Each structure stands twice: as structure tokens, then as C-alpha cells.
Amino acid sequence: MFNKIKLLTQSKFARNVAVVVTGTAGAQAIAMVFSPVITRIYGPETFGAMGTFIAIFEMISPLAALSYPMAMVLPKQDSDAIGLAKISIWIAVITSLITAMVLILFKTPVVEAFNLHAIEPYILLLPITMLFSVLVTISSQWTIRKRLFKLKAKTAILQALIISLMKAGLGLLNPSAIILIGTTSFGYLLQAALIGIGIREKDKEDKPSTHSSFQVTGLLKQYKDFAYYRTPQIFLNSVGQSLPILMLANLFSPAAVGFYVLARTVLFVPSSLIGTSVAEVFYPKFVETIRNGESGKKLLVKASATLAAIGSVPYLVLIAFGPWLFALIFGAEWKEAGEFSRWMSIWLFVVLATRPIIAAIPALSLQGLFLVFEAIAVLIRIFAILIGYLWTGTALGAVMAFSLSNVIIYAALTIIIVRKA
């Protein structure tokens, strides 16, 4: 046992995971420390408005750069990765301008169609946030490519501290939705700027080698699968994940959306803390394994099993004591969010365990298959929410059905990808 622990601590993969986990843990810890303060400043309705904004943003953000930033880890030469970054920025500028024009010209029909009255005054922040999010993705993919995990960890902690202070401080002056939405949007720009500064300082130290200039047309064609398959897949997944917020807003009240948003925020902590950290380190290692002509099945299964074992503890606690914990930590008016968390924990436990599965898809060239799978999954999620609503007539019933449908979806995806690996 001692030898195994020693080998684990000496493993570069394990050390990289530990670094990313430390940064993510620090950022999540800061956010959670401020959460009881923030939930007592802003009510469920205000959280509901922010949740609606985030739901719409998450639906349209995959279109911002057509997923080209995700390909930055794959090229052998840094010049090609830099070329993909430049291509991504130009696409993001164009799509953000188009989105802004659509919202300006057709603002009223869009608001009426999706019942977006709660965020109507702030709707033009959507294209701005789209552009900022692409900058974050590009800078993050570069840190993953160059294995700058310490930089990523430091910037995550600093960004979380600044944004949390802004939400709490500005909320005391004006506890409105514009503060939550505005600071969320600014958070993307801040994170990209912090990582960018760190990358520039690192480049000065390392004096990186230069390569031949990239060819735009060649890169667009070489990584077209990300635009053709990965982008619509991520879009469909975002639609599927945003469905509860949009449907709760239409079927029930802004407060129900607020309960769901808080529950999801808390429950994503283990997934972000452990799952994202492992996936970011796992992805380049898995790419290298496949590139060397080796089977990635063993690595895939091991990473998923480890995450499942670790994630079972926090989610079991929330299943058992969710309502009590939410009322104690966030205030009595948030007890309903704790009821939501019990059922959502089952779903997000499966999401955590399948992080490596999702990360492996580009390396296995299964983008087309994943797109078809995601389209079917969206239909299943829609029917699940409607069945839960019609059967129980409550927001909790809709959340229960949605959560259980996701368990089935991710379990099926795991079986498919492991067999392909």
C-alpha cells in the first residue's frame, strides 16, 4: 500500500491533477464561503433572472467560435494551435456581432417567444459575454496544451475572489439582477486577462521556439469536425441542460428557477472540483496514448471509476441531508432548493463519473456519433420534464424526471464510448 501511494505521488499525471484540483478547490471554496452572504442579499427571484440569462448564454455560446478552440490541444506544432486561436477569435467577433444585430432588430419577438421579460433590460450583454467566453476557452486550452496547470490554478482562485467580492459588495448597494448578471459577464473577461498575463510572462521565461506560419484554410479543413459535429453537439447538450431553467420559468415562477440555479451551483462543485481537473489533465494524456497507437480503454475506465468512487461521498451526503443543509447554510427560504438537490445529486454524480468519457470523444474521432446521440438525448430530456410536470404538477416533479433521464443518458453514453475505445 505504501509503495502504491509513493508511486502515485511521484506520478506526473497525479501531480498535475493535484495542482488543478487545488486551484479549482480554492476557487470553489471562495465561492461557497461567499454564497451564504450572497443568498441573503439576493432573493430567489433575482437568482432566477440570473439563471435565465445563463441558460440562454449557455445555449448560444457553443456557436461563438464553432468549437475550434477545443482543437488547440491536438496539433503537434504550436504555430497551428496559435492559428486555431486566431481563427477562433475572428469567428467569435463575427458571431457576436450577428447575435447583437439579431437581438437589436428582433428583441421583442425573442423576449416574447422565450418569456425572457426578467432579463430584457440586460439581453444585449449576451453577445458581449459570448465573446468573453471564447477568450477564456482559448487561454484555457493553451494552458492545457502547455501544461501550465499552476497558472490555471492561481488565476482561478484570484478570479473567484474578485468576482465574489464584487457580487457581495455591489449587492449591498443595489441587490438587483444587473449586478449578478454583469459580474458574471465580467468574470469571463477577467479570467481571460489573468491567464493571458500569466502566459505572456511564461513565454518570456521559456523563449518558445518558432514555427512556420499557419494556413487558415488548411486548419479550417483539418479540424472541420469540431465545427460540423462538436458545435451542434455542444449546442444540443446546452439546450438539454438549460431546458429545466427555461421550462421552469414558463411553467412555474422565477423563484422555482432560483431554487434550481442555487442547487445546480452547489452540486456542480464536486464535478468542477474533481471532474474538470481530472478531465483537463486526462485529455492531453489520452490524446498522446491514442497518437502512439495504444488502446485508451484501460485509462478511460480507470479514470471514470476513480471519479465515481470519490464523488459518491459528497453526493450521498446531499441526498440524505440536502433540505436541512440548504436551509442552514443559505437561509430558510432556500429549503426547497435542498429538495431539488436530492434528485439532482443522482444525475450530477453520473456527470462527474463520465467526465473522462466526454473528454475522450474528440481523440477517438466520434464527433458524428456524439452529435446523433445528443440529438436523441435532448428529446428524452424534453419528454422527461413534461412527464414530470404533468404527473405531479410541481417543479420538484419536473426536476426529478429530468434528473433520472440524465442518469439513463449518461449511462448509455459510457457504454458506447468505452466499447469504441
Q: Care to describe what's here?
A:
With 421 residues, this protein is mainly alpha-helical. 84% of the residues lie in helices and 0% in strands. It has one domain. The N terminus is likely disordered.
Summarize it.
The protein contains 16 helices and no strands. It is mainly α and 421 residues long.
Structural class: mainly alpha
Strand content: under 5%
How does the overall form come out from the CA principal axes? globular
What's the structural domain tally?
Answer: 1
Binned, the helix content reads over 70%
Count of runs of 4 or more consecutive helical residues = 16
Radius of gyration, in Å, reads 21 Å
Q: Whole-Å distance between the termini?
A: 30 Å
How confident overall, as mean pLDDT? 85
**Poorly predicted regions:** 1-9, 208-212
Strand count, sense and barrel status of the largest sheet are: none
Total strands: 0
Order of helices and strands: HHHHHHHHHHHHHHHH
SSE topology:
Layout: H1 2-10, H2 12-41, H3 44-60, H4 78-105, H5 107-114, H6 125-145, H7 149-173, H8 177-206, H9 216-222, H10 224-251, H11 254-291, H12 297-330, H13 335-353, H14 355-360, H15 367-392, H16 395-420
Helix pairs in contact: 2-7, 2-11, 3-6, 3-8, 3-10, 3-11, 4-6, 6-8, 7-8, 10-11, 10-15, 11-12, 11-13, 12-13, 13-16, 15-16
